[in-house]
Amino acid sequence: MTEFERIKYEDLYREAWLAQNIKDKASNPRWNGGVSNSALNGFKKHTSVNKGGRPKLSLSKDAAMLNKLLQREMSLKDAADIMGLTVKSLRQIKSRYGLPRSKDEPVSNVHPDKD
Known about the structure:
mainly alpha
């Protein structure tokens, strides 16, 4: 198909599409033209998305120690032996605080126990 034919058929297809939309709207008044509701309502992101997401939690004593151990590339099993905690609890601390963190990463003053 040449460029000229493609352009000609695009116009014909558009006209047929608009005519069919009118028929569909007449038969079903709730039909929105195949557009999602979020597009019709002007989809808006959550406000924290624009600000960079949820703020990082300040590290507790256990989280700070685990962060140091993880920065030294120690396994969770070895860290559990040193800290006297279970591997499961260290895994939860690691996921809650997003460990390991770099030293120059900004931290908010939000503490998980004070929500």
